[in-house]
Write a structure and sequence with these properties.
The protein has 77 residues and is mostly helical. The chain is 64% helix and 0% strand. It contains two helices and no strands.
């Protein structure tokens, strides 16, 4: 009997399940905590950069001069 080759989707699914299992094992938990720490630090750097950019825009625009907010400048778009 000839065996059919294993398709790519099956191997991809198996690798995903094995990777998730490895990260949740006792040996993989420090790696998972490290990844979460990197994400938190990255978010903090992003927030600091955004705040610095807003302050720079405010200073370059002048303290007493406020321009009317246009639809393009809305933070809700």
């Amino acid at each position: 009997m000839e065996q059919e080759p294993i398709q790519g989707n099956v191997l991809k699914t198996a690798a995903t399940v094995a990777g998730a299992g490895a990260l949740l094992s006792p040996a993989g938990l420090p790696i998972l905590q490290g990844i979460a720490g990197i994400a938190v630090v990255g978010l903090g750097i992003f927030a600091a950069g955004t705040a610095a950019m807003k302050v720079g825009e405010m200073i370059s625009g002048g303290f007493g001069q406020s321009k009317p907010q246009q639809e393009d400048d809305s933070p809700f778009l």
